[in-house]
Amino acid sequence: MRFTSSVRTHVGLVRGNNEDSAFAGPHMLLVADGVGGHAAGEVASASVAHLLGAMSLLPKPASGESSTPDEDLPVVLREWVDRAHRLLVEGVAADPTRAGMATTLTAVLTDGHTFAMCHAGDSRAYVLRDGGLRQVSVDHTLVQALLDQGRITPAQARVHPYRSAVTRFVDGGDRPDADIVLLDLRPRDRLLLCSDGLTDFVDEGEIRSLLLDATPEEATDNLVRAALVAGGRDNVTCVVGDVLDGELMPWHRRPYFCRMEGAVTDLANLIDPAGHGHAA
């Protein structure tokens, strides 16, 4: 199995720059949102998205493409996230003004048989199956913690002054505490990965309706447009991927079927893997 997908991002109607990054390829979908209030959020999101996207295009994105045991794919994702974390550590060492830079990360990887998700932060992953929409990620936010504890109601959560306070992310400090889980996906399922620039302003009922009866390209266009109509007070990024029942894409063709959007498309935002600052 693999993905056919579309990705769209927009700076929004208020922000001066786009700190979101997205990658969509035949074997990986990813959204990263530079954490607001942290230095160089666009560098963090771009560097993490670029590294993980590049890893998914290598000849073997997982150990043994044709016969990877279920438990191996999460191990691969954990190794990739740890590698991204080390890259951010190197980026801060090369330029101390980046201290505090961080990004959310929501990524889904397949080896052709199983699917695994890595998630840290308040970007989200949804699955549309047989007309029903289900959130498969859990928000890592202060407000979600208050909800889980029964200290606030869902109505209060929607207007809480600290609803954007993220409690987990990928940064240049401690090792990321990301959720890495297997997903039950099957052909004809549709995945939506998005930054909070969508979900903070567009409710799930409207998101579901915009995902139905549309191509991935139409769905991403309509979702981003809905966020802008709702005020566009944040960067908004959407990746829509349909699960196809087919062979893995041959490794030499993978780059022709991938797409990057947002901060990751600016080479000035990428940390040099050698730790020498920017890539360009």
Give a verbal description of the structure.
A hairpin with a 2-residue loop joins strand 7 and strand 8 (132-135). This protein has a single domain (2-269), classed as Phosphatase 2c, domain 1, CATH 3.60.40.10. The protein is built from 7 helices and 13 strands. The longest helix has 23 residues, at 72-94. The termini are far apart. Mean pLDDT is 90; it is low at 62-70. Helix 1 packs antiparallel against helix 2. A 6-stranded antiparallel β-sheet has the order 10-6-5-3-2-13, with helices on one face. The protein has a 5-stranded antiparallel β-sheet with strand order 1-12-11-7-8. With 280 residues, it is an alpha+beta fold. Residues 4-243 form the PPM-type phosphatase domain.
Sequence-ordered SSE layout with sheet pairings:
Layout (H helix, E strand, L loop, with lengths): L1 E9 L9 E5 L3 E6 L7 H16 L15 H23 L7 E2 L1 E6 L4 E6 L3 E6 L2 E4 L6 H7 L5 H5 L11 E2 L7 E5 L6 E5 L1 H4 L4 H8 L4 H14 L6 E9 L14 E4 L18
Antiparallel strand pairs: 1-12, 2-3, 2-13, 3-5, 4-9, 5-6, 6-10, 7-8, 7-11, 11-12
Helix pairs in contact: 1-2
Key phrases:
single chain; 280 residues; alpha+beta; Phosphatase 2c, domain 1; six-stranded antiparallel beta sheet; five-stranded antiparallel beta sheet
Average pLDDT across residues? 90
| Radius of gyration, taken over Cα atoms and rounded to an integer in Å | 18 Å
Question: Regions with pLDDT < 50 over 5+ consecutive residues?
Answer: 62-70
CATH architecture: 4-Layer Sandwich
Helicity range of the residues? 25-40%
Strand order of the largest sheet: 10-6-5-3-2-13
CATH superfamily: PPM-type phosphatase domain
H/E order of the elements?
EEEHHEEEEEHHEEEHHHEE
